[in-house]
Amino acid sequence: MRVERIDPGLEVPPESGFVDGVAPLDVGDALGAAGVQDGALAAAGLGRPEAAGRPPEGGVVLTWDDGATTLWVRRPDEGDEAGLVKKLIADAVAEPIEGIGEAAILIDGDHVLATPARTVAADRVLWWVVDDVEHRLETDRPRAELLDMGRTLAG
Known about the structure:
globular
């Protein structure tokens, strides 16, 4: 994944939400495919997901709060890593975070995730890697709560 800043004078392409275009998947099957345990989700304050699916970029996405909170889990062999770009808009900030997985970045503020398949609108996202597995947690919950969730899920 690359992170870029968009020139404020440039027009941003139309965007959708992350769960738009996701093929529905049974929640139990998605948890198994993602390697995420119900206990870890409960400890993170999320509980069992309301829905799940397979996004066009590969991996699985789990959703809560009618899609306001999503966790995307993806292995590098499930899609084109080079095609994932975070494009920061205006005052958005990308900050490396210590103590979550092997590497983590918090992106706070309006941005888009551009992939070969689509452009997705986003706000507050924590992206981390554990054993070469990427995790993308997006939520409208407070920053401190998002970081606590990430620490818990990263183990």
